[in-house]
Amino acid sequence: MSKLNITIIGLGLIGGSIGLSLKEGLQSQAILTGWDNNRGVREMSLQRKAVDRVSSSLSDAVKAADIVFLCTPILQMMPIVECIAPVMKQGAILTDVGSTKRFISDKIAQMLPVGIEYVGGHPMAGSEQSGIVAADKDLFRNKSYILVDCLKTSPAAMFTIHSLITITGALITTMDMEKHDLYAALASHVPHVTAAALVNLLDHVGEPEGLQLAGGGFRDTTRIAGSDADMWADICLSNCDAVADGLKKLQELLGEVIFAAQSSDREALYSFFSKAKQRRASITSSLVPN
Q: Where is the Prephenate/arogenate dehydrogenase domain positioned along the sequence (predicted)?
């Protein structure tokens, strides 16, 4: 029985974690090849055993691949697909891990030759740490992994990617592009922007000793502000409508709090915090424990 050839393009936190997880789950059933534009990252991925081999050439990395995972920042994906599409073999499947879908899915599908399929994906997992050094084989366990339902994707290709992602322990959900981008904005993108804004708000603290008041609450609320800036700039640009809409709604809510505080409306303030507490309890009770 021939081994499955899997290539991972982009060996950061997500790409490295996919490699570690699939290597553990597939053992000798697959050969994993990695590519990254950083030589040090390629070397580290071998040291960490996230892949079996690496290549400095994109063409060499994908030419024998049955499955290609595209794990770069969003705005780097299209130029890479343009480069690899002509050399990918017939029957190969390309899947990505991009946090936004409408911006890239149609473009990628149109760039691929007949006989090569595309399955859009998005693991709802991450860390405030980044890079191959932070890669974790259990990163996706009990976390949502979205596969995008696209008319151009065959059931066979969807089944193949679904089967591979199952190995990581992720909880797989299928949805269309529009719903994905809306839900991702509200559940992930807007919170990341908000966390970064809270950290940047400290620039307005005139005295350094004021920072001594930043304790556990500040640390917990702003943990995700330590995520990769390059990735999040791309996400905001590629999902700008949904992110902007979510931030405007957040702005309206904050405006209501400002008005209630300045009006000494304790009832409105109590209602704001009480509703949030109850809603959060309802949401967290339905989540699968890590």
A: 4-290
Domains, the chain, ordered by start: 4-175 (3.40.50.720), 179-285 (1.10.3660.10)
With a CB cutoff of 8 Å and minimum separation 6, the contacts of 102 are: 177, 178, 181, 239
The β-bridge relationship of strands 121-123 and 67-70 is unpaired
Relative orientation angle of helices 13-26 and 155-167, to the nearest 10 degrees: 90
Buried b (16+ CB within 10 A) or exposed e, 93-124: bbbbbbbbbbbbbeebbebbeeebbbbbbbbb
Q: How far apart are CA 155 and CA 144, in angstroms?
A: 20
List, for residues 138-185, the tens digit of each pLDDT value.
Answer: 999 999 999 998 768 899 999 999 999 999 999 999 998 888 999 889
Nearest to 101 by CA among 192, 19, 175: 175
Q: Using an 8 Å Cβ cutoff, are 132 and 44 in contact?
A: yes
Q: Determine phi and psi for 168, rounding to 5 degrees.
A: -75, -10
- For 148, phi and psi rounded to 5 degrees? -85, 125
- Whole-structure pTM over 0.70, yes or no? yes
